[in-house]
UniProtKB/TrEMBL annotation:
Residues 23-138 form the Response regulatory domain. Coiled coil: none annotated. The modification 4-aspartylphosphate is found at residue 72. This is Diguanylate cyclase. One of its GO terms (molecular function) is diguanylate cyclase activity. Residues 185-315 form the GGDEF domain. It comes from the Bacteria. Its EC number is 2.7.7.65. PANTHER family: DIGUANYLATE CYCLASE DGCM-RELATED (PTHR45138:SF9), REGULATORY COMPONENTS OF SENSORY TRANSDUCTION SYSTEM (PTHR45138). The lineage of its organism: Bacteria, Bacillati, Bacillota, Bacilli, Bacillales.
Length: 315
């Protein structure tokens, strides 16, 4: 047997302090039981909330957002089984439930587990067993929370360009679908393209070129609304920006051009380089034809390039 298990130190690692800060809601209509559980679990440094009325349990769950619920089965008006059934029916409910009940029949235990509880302890319960069950439940909840966080971060990485930190073409495809479905609305689009970017790579190397692309992406992100607008690395040294409001789109484009003009990048000693972008802008935004929107922004960008670069053209 593992020493940690035999000495009761299984969960006493770097996450132990976090577990000790957890909040436990105890629902039981017997004050004596509540008092025993409250005193014992408080001695383990958990934050304890107690409720004697089953009906009050629902509002208390919403108000306190506990990390664990210890739930009696036999209560007047609303049973623990009914409370569990209603709570777990909510799609976003993720709080572990442990039943504490004098009903030790196999049918009762199975019913409690079928309703979604992670454990079922019978009264009179052994306190050190309860302690370990609580530790396990909280540890599992923490692991699930971390996994959800990791999955969310991984999902974000799938849709983010690794070099610039802007959204990539994969997320653009999703955005186009949402635009066509009407769940995302924009009024203007702009194409932003580095001027003479090939010369930057040729003269200073791709590492400097990559740094310039990152700096320009940072500038674009700082000039648009992070809540309403979206910026993508469209390809190479070209960026696509979707703006929710067309009223100040020209001002935004102009602010990007001016910020890039002042861009400072570390180069070889005694060398200096001016950076600039050209921007094609369209506010003729037809959500049913995104290809047409891109064509218009591209056409405006080409006009800016052909007219001497370092400027904005509107189509």
């Amino acid at each position: 047997m593992d020493n940690n298990l035999s000495t009761g130190n299984y969960f006493r690692n770097e996450s132990w302090d976090r577990l000790m800060k957890c909040r436990i809601l105890i629902v039981d209509d017997e004050p004596h039981n509540l008092n025993i559980l409250r005193i014992f679990l408080n001695s383990l440094h958990y934050e304890i909330i107690t409720v004697e009325d089953g009906k009050e349990a629902f509002s208390m769950v919403k108000e306190t957002a506990p990390d664990l619920i210890l739930l009696d089965v036999m209560m007047p008006e609303v049973t623990g089984f009914e409370i569990c059934k209603q709570l777990t029916a909510e799609s976003d409910f993720d709080i572990p439930i442990i039943f504490l009940s004098a009903n030790a029949q196999k049918e009762d235990i199975l019913q409690g587990l079928r309703l979604g509880a992670i454990d079922y302890l019978t009264k009179p319960f052994v306190l050190d067993v309860l302690e370990r069950k609580v530790e396990i439940a909280l540890h599992q909840k923490a692991k699930v929370k971390n996994l959800k966080k990791d999955n969310k971060q991984l999902a974000k990485l799938v849709y983010v360009d690794a070099l610039t930190g802007l959204y990539n073409r994969a997320y653009l495809d999703i955005t186009i679908r949402m635009i066509k479905e009407g769940t995302k609305k924009f009024q203007a689009a702009m194409m932003v393209d580095m001027d003479y970017f090939k010369d930057i790579n040729d003269n200073y190397g791709h590492l400097v070129g990559d740094q310039v692309l990152r700096e320009v992406a940072t500038i674009i992100s700082s000039k648009i609304s992070c809540e309403h607008d979206l910026a993508f690395r469209y390809g190479g040294d070209e960026y696509l920006v979707l703006l929710q409001n067309e009223v100040n789109c020209v001002e935004i484009a102009d602010s990007i051009i001016k910020a890039v003009d002042g861009l400072k990048v570390s180069l070889a000693p005694h060398k200096s380089q001016e950076f600039s972008v050209s921007i094609g802008l369209t506010n003729n935004f037809d959500p049913t034809s995104f290809d047409q929107i891109i064509m218009q922004a591209d056409s405006a960008l080409l006009g800016a390039k052909n007219n001497g670069r370092h400027q904005i053209k509107i189509r």
